Amino acid sequence: MKAVVVERPNQVSYREVEEPAVGIDDVLVESRAAGLCRTDIEMMTGTFTDPRWVHFPLVPGHEWAGIVVEVGANVPSVKLGDRVVCEGLIPCYRCRRCRSGETQWCEHIEALGFTRPGGYAELVSVPGRVVHQLPGHVSFDAGVLVEPASVVLHGIVKARPEPGEAVGVIGVGTLGALAIVLLRLHSPSRIVTERLLDLDPIVTHRYPVSEFQEAVRQMDERRGIVAKIVLEHE
Fold first, then answer.
1. Which domains does the chain have, with CATH numbers?
2. pLDDT computed for residue 193 by the predictor
3. CA-CA distance, 30 to 52, in Å (whole number)?
4. Residue 173's closest CA among 212, 214, 223?
5. pTM of the prediction?
6. DSSP string computed for 44-70
7. Cys bridge to 119: 31, 63, 101, 200, which one at CB 3.0-4.6 A?
C-alpha cells in the first residue's frame, strides 16, 4: 500500500509501505479522506518535533474517516463495510492516570498520525475501542471534521454560552468556522467575528493524497480563508 511518509523534517514522500498488522482487538480501516491540519505541516517542516508525540518516520493523518475492511475476533462493535471515524488518542487504560479517569494524561498514550500511522496511509490498523460508526447521512467530509469539531465543542461546553448572549469568535480558520456553526446551536443574540462567512461547506478543497505537496502549498497560500483541505485516497 502507499502512504505519505515524513521521514524527517523537510523530507516527505508518497511511497510504498508495509500493510499494518491486525490483532484480535483491532480493526483495519481503508482511509477514504483525511484532513490537512497545520500540525501535519509543522511535522513536515520540523516546526513541531516534540519526541513525546513525533516519532519519525511517521505517517500523518489524525483527522480522517474510512471503511472497515477487516475486524479482529474480539471486536463486536463494527463489521465489514461500516463507514467509520476513529479517535485520535489511544490511552492504555492501565496506568495510574487512566485508572483515575484522566485518560487524557495517560502515561503511555499513543496518537494516530503522530506516534503511530494515521489516515494518510491507504490502510490504518486501530484498536476497536476507538472506532465509531458514522450514521448513513454523515459524509466522509463530515467525518474528517469530527476530530477538530470535538476540540471546539469541548471549549464551548467549558464556556457555557447562554441563549440570547452575544458571542465572539477570534480567528476564522477551520476551527473558528466550526465554532460559529456550533455556537449557532446555542441561539446567541449575535456572533461577532472579523468578517462575514459562507460556511457551507467548510470543506472546500480536495486533492488526491499523491498530490499532498500541492495541498500544502494551497494551505499556506490561503491563510485566513475559511476552508478545510481534504486529501482523498484514489
1. 2-140+203-213+227-232 (3.90.180.10), 146-201 (3.40.50.720)
2. 83
3. 27
4. 223
5. 0.90
6. HHTS---TTT--SSB---SSEEEEEEE
7. 31
